[in-house]
């Protein structure tokens, strides 16, 4: 039985209407839904360009969403959490820290989405690189994930092996990478999530992958639920799948104290 999904998007970034996402969570039988819209907080020109190219404005609109969440809370019999998913890069730590202090979300999710300021989903960009360079980028990816956890800026570290979605970056992750992340999580307040963002799509696996999850379990790392849904349909389809996964493993998803 899944009670909470802490990772869903709304039209305040790249998801559907807030109300539709909340309705879907209700329909899926959840007692809590976390709306964690994408937010890029960086003073670096390259990331400001990325933010502007994608069209993310949540750093400017989070107060509007907050008032909308407050109104929805009066209508729906479900907890609606006012959360955020922030792109992490070590160079942006001070800016992120200042923003989080000012915006005061109920919790924050941290994500490594970019390498060389390019989204790791961008297949042809990485496919053109020689294998040694791609291996080095995967090293850099996991270094960033460890940095994210060690920064203590976030309650949740999202989709720990996002690079696996990109065929050009597959096959470079090692047990040593997994252990470095597991050790960081073990010493941190930050927990991770079972991310269902691609479970019913082409990739067909959770993040973290099964072998990564085995290692996290060795370290007793807490895992919460993140469907990473951008549409109501995705949320409704993914929840039973996630419930089955926890049942199979015989573990309970961790609930945040928010
Ligand atoms: Zn993400
Ligand atoms: Zn997300």
Keywords, separated by commas or semicolons:
TIM Barrel, seven-stranded parallel β-sheet, binds zinc ion, alpha/beta, about 15% strand, two-stranded antiparallel sheet, about 260 residues
Word description of this protein:
The chain has 258 residues and is of the alpha/beta class. It has a single domain (8-232), classed as Alpha-Beta Barrel (TIM Barrel), CATH 3.20.20.140. Helix content is 44%, strand content 16%. It is built from 9 helices and 9 strands. It has helices spanning 18-27, 45-54, 58-75, 93-103, 123-127, 131-151, 175-186, 210-218, 232-249, and strands at 4-8, 32-39, 79-87, 107-111, 114-115, 118-119, 156-157, 191-195, 223-226. A 7-stranded parallel sheet has the order 1-2-3-4-7-8-9. A two-stranded antiparallel ribbon has the order 5-6. α4 links the parallel β3 and β4 (107-111). The two termini are 20 Å apart. The relative contact order is 0.16. Bound molecules: zinc ion (ZN) (2 copies).
Estimate percent helicity: 40-55%
| CATH class membership | Alpha Beta
Tell me the domain tally: 1
Mean pLDDT: 97
From the N-terminal CA to the C-terminal CA, the straight-line distance is: 20 Å
Strand percentage: 15-25%
CATH topology value: TIM Barrel
Order the strands across the largest sheet as they lie in space.
1-2-3-4-7-8-9
In total, the number of strands is 9
Tell me the overall shape: globular
The small molecules bound here are: zinc ion
Quick one: biggest sheet?
7 strands, parallel
**Structural class of the secondary elements?**
alpha/beta
The CATH homologous superfamily is called Metal-dependent hydrolases
Q: Which CATH architecture would you pick?
A: Alpha-Beta Barrel
């Amino acid at each position: 039985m899944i009670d909470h999904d802490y990772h869903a998007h709304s039209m305040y970034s790249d998801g559907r209407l807030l109300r539709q996402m909340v309705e879907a969570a209700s329909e899926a039988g959840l007692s809590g839904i976390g709306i964690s819209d994408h937010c890029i907080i960086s003073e670096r020109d390259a990331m400001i360009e990325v933010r502007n190219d994608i069209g993310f404005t949540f750093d400017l609109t989070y107060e509007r969403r907050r008032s909308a969440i407050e109104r929805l809370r009066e209508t729906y019999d479900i907890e609606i959490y006012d959360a955020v998913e922030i792109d992490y890069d070590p160079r942006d730590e001070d800016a992120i820290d200042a923003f989080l202090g000012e915006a005061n979300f109920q919790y924050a999710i941290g994500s490594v989405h970019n390498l060389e300021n390019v989204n790791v989903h961008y297949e042809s960009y990485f496919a053109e690189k020689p294998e040694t360079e791609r291996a080095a980028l995967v090293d850099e990816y996991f270094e960033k994930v460890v940095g994210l956890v060690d920064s203590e800026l976030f309650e949740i570290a999202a989709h720990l092996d996002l690079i696996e979605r990109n065929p050009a970056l597959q096959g470079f992750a090692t047990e040593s990478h997994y252990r470095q992340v597991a050790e960081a999580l073990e010493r941190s307040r930050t927990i991770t999530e079972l991310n269902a963002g691609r479970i019913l799509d082409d990739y067909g696996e959770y993040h973290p992958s099964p072998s990564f999850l085995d290692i996290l379990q060795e370290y007793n790392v807490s895992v919460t639920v993140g469907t990473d849904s951008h549409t109501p349909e995705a949320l409704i389809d993914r929840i039973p799948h996630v419930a089955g996964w926890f049942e199979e493993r015989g573990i309970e998803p961790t609930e945040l104290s928010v």
